[in-house]
Amino acid sequence: MPLLPPPPPPTAAPRGRRGARRRRRSKRRNWAALPLDVMLYVLHKLDDVELMFGGPARVCRSWHDAVCEPELWRRIDMRGRSLCFRETVSLKNMAQLSIWFSAGQCREFFGQHDVDNELLLFLADRHN
């Protein structure tokens, strides 16, 4: 049985700080370059409040644009938010912002205490 040739010697990695920076840079990913469908898949894992007030919209312009995609806002659930945000944010304003993001594609809306006739009319006016 013939012997296989030995493997080639490992290439020496650049030494020093510049070499380390190059290695780190080559491992970085450009999250802004992700396709829109991949970004939307990731963003669907978050709830409405995380989308509005979390960090995704602040990552970069492409992630901000993805957060504003109406597909993410087809189901809006504002139940149970009154205890968390009553002091700092108007739930009515949050609901209106969510409805505005949906661009007429909202199919389900769930709310509790802060839902009034004005908000329901706002929802109806924005629905296609």
Could you walk me through the main structural features you see in this protein, from its secondary elements to its overall organization?
The protein is mostly helical. It has one domain (34-126). Helix content is 49%, strand content 5%. The protein is built from eight helices and two strands, in the order αααααβααβα. It has helices at residues 16-27, 36-43, 48-53, 56-59, 61-67, 82-85, 91-102, 117-126; strands at 75-77, 108-110. It has a two-stranded parallel ribbon. α2 (36-43) packs across α5 and α7 runs parallel beside α8 (117-126). The longest helix is centred in the first third of the chain and has 12 residues, at 16-27. The radius of gyration is 24 Å and the shape is elongated. The chain starts with 15 loop residues before the first helix and ends with a helix. The mean pLDDT is 78.
For the termini, the CA-CA separation is: 75 Å
Mean pLDDT: 78
The number of domains is 1
Q: Please tally the helical runs, counting DSSP H or I stretches of 4 or more residues.
A: 8
SSE order, one letter for each helix or strand? HHHHHEHHEH
Strand elements, count: 2
- Which parts are unreliable, with pLDDT below 50 for 5 consecutive residues or more? none
Name the overall outline.
Answer: elongated
The major beta sheet can be summarized as: 2 strands, parallel
Order of strands, main sheet, comes to: 1-2
Cα-atom radius of gyration: 24 Å
Q: Find the structural class using helix and strand composition.
A: mainly alpha
The proportion of strand residues reads under 5%
